[in-house]
């Protein structure tokens, strides 16, 4: 789950100049639209969504085709849709910071998403209560109500930059992103999730990437399937199962080590690579030996513990929220320069 970000370096207003250049290179047929506070709501009554109107035809994606070889027909390239996990970039250290948000957003628009569609997602009210009922230690070190919800000033900036905003009561942003990611993939697009949250690694695939804000270097950095395999020596499909063994200290989810100190990452990866998932591994261990005696005893004795971790750490894919096809259109960037420049100047010390 999201962690507060450390301080980031100052990004001058000139950092968003490329946005103006991009907008100038593709003049719009209509006058720029500044959205006002009249949110359109997606199907769920508990879901608030503030979405921009579809851009004019000249601003939409042209689905480029790759040249085929020989007589093979050309295949359409997949467009990208970005999901922006807003809450983590709204912090400097443990304190909310509007200037940190503005700087990360400016970098995101000018160097990452460009004109590709962006959907911003916030935690809903009571979003982590479900997991806290399962595991009282889940995010217990974080004050209730702090770092959740949508700051109206942040929402206004996103709306002015033609970014739809989604928030579903009773769910964390992670669950909403996971649900919408499935829907976007079904439409034939690729997904890029903009967040430092390691929980999203369980979604990584050929068509799902992450892009993370890196405070140490002051920029966003892509994290792909290739990076994951190189780092963990396993497939992302077992990421969630692996984290059930290792735990998540930042979110207050203990691993198996305090119960079985000798059961480490190497053992977990070896068993998961062989059996494919935690559930397959536990079911197999219940009827026959799957490894060394010590590992076998751990799997049998602590099966319920591991299953509870799985339920806490797994992202939900069934949130009652529906993708709006207008969110798949190229983003109208005509307001970016003025909106972000004004916001950065206003909150440069915030």
TrEMBL record:
The keyword Hydrolase applies. Residues 38-74 are annotated as: Disordered. Residues 79-333 form the 5'-3' exonuclease domain. SMART domains: 53EXOc. Signal peptide: none annotated. GO terms for molecular function: 5'-3' exonuclease activity; 5'-flap endonuclease activity; DNA binding. One of its GO terms (biological process) is DNA replication, Okazaki fragment processing. This is 5'-3' exonuclease domain-containing protein. It comes from the Eukaryota. Keywords: Hydrolase, Nuclease. Residues 38-51 have a biased composition (Low complexity).
